[in-house]
Amino acid sequence: MLEVSGLACERGDARLFSDVSFAVGEGELLSVQGPNGSGKTSLLRLLAGLSRPAAGRILWRGEPITELGDLYTRELLVIGHANAVKEEFTAEENLAIAIEFSGRTSSIGTRLDALGRMGLAERSQLPTKYLSQGQKRRVALARLCLAADIPLWVLDEPFAALDTRALETTASLVAIHLERGGAVILTT
Fold it and tell me: Is the pLDDT of residue 119 over 90?
């Protein structure tokens, strides 16, 4: 599915990493680990097509992602380290916007089910400014419940700020995605 060869990343004058190569196929998980500032998030940004590498190639199904455009991004779910929720919108509205922004559709019932699965059923209609950091993270991660058909998930620290129940639910969603032949790249 995804092949990376000779990848290098620079920020300013600093080279964060170089000559990184790997492949992630159907049903495979790649866990990227390292200390803060080592380039984990920068790597994910490259894989998502949000940044350009200093060197190397990223191929999706054998084609450079830079040439695929929307054909690649429609097969990609990215959840960054920032939750990307608007404080004034409800949890359900934030999920609706995220799904619509990705070019997909969902019903209010499916969104409420996803939020319920993440333990937010009673808070789905609250503006997110009233939610804790962990609850805001669960709003972002509720997208996983609606992304079974997206083959590649790129997740930046998906288990951060979660309680035990949300951690188990998120781990279960990742495991189910892998069993169905999806691929996951995540940082820890």
Answer: yes
Dihedral class, residue 181 (left if φ above 0, else alpha if ψ from -120 to 50, else beta): left
The whole-angstrom separation of Cα 135 and Cα 2 is 31
Strands 183-187 and 29-32: parallel
User: What is the C-alpha to C-alpha distance for residues 48 and 94, in angstroms, rounded to an integer?
Assistant: 21
Task: Please state which of the ranges 14-23, 48-57, 102-111, 112-121 shows the lowest mean pLDDT.
Answer: 102-111
With a CB cutoff of 8 Å and minimum separation 6, the contacts of 109 are none
Helices (H), 31-163: 40-47, 65-68, 70-73, 91-101, 108-117, 133-141
pLDDT in tens, 16-26: 999 999 999 99
Encoding tokens for residue 83? Answer: 């939750």
